[in-house]
Amino acid sequence: MEKNEKYLRAKKKVQMLKAFYLHLTLYILVNILLFVINLSSDAGNWWFLYPLGGWGIGILAHGISTFAYGNFGSAWEERKIKEYMDKDQ
C-alpha cells in the first residue's frame, strides 16, 4: 500500500509542477504582449509594469507553494509529529 501512496504523492507533485510551468509560461507571453502594446501606444507611461508586478507576486507565491511542498509535505509533517511525540514521552 505504501508504494501506491508514494506514487500518488509523486503524481500530485508532477501535476503541481506542470501547473506552475504553465502559469509561468502564460505570465511571460502575456507580459511580452502587454509590453509590445505599451510600446506601440502613445500612453507616455509604462503602464505594463503594473500587471507585470501584480501578477509577478502571484507567480512568486505559486512558485513558493509548489517548490516548498517538497520540503514541507506529508513526509515532513510525519517526521515532525513523531519528533514531538518522542519529546513528550
Keyword list:
elongated; 89 residues; mainly alpha
- What is the averaged pLDDT score? 86
| Low-confidence segments | none
Which oligomerization state do the chains in this entry correspond to?
Answer: single chain
Count every beta strand, where a strand is a DSSP E run of 2 or more residues: 0
SSE series? HHH
Largest sheet: none
The helix fraction, in percent, is: over 70%
Report the radius of gyration as a whole number of Å: 20 Å
Number of domains: 1
In one word, what is the shape?
elongated
Give the end-to-end Cα distance, rounded to a whole number of Å. Answer: 30 Å
| Backbone structural class | mainly alpha
Tally of individual helices:
3
- Strand content is under 5%
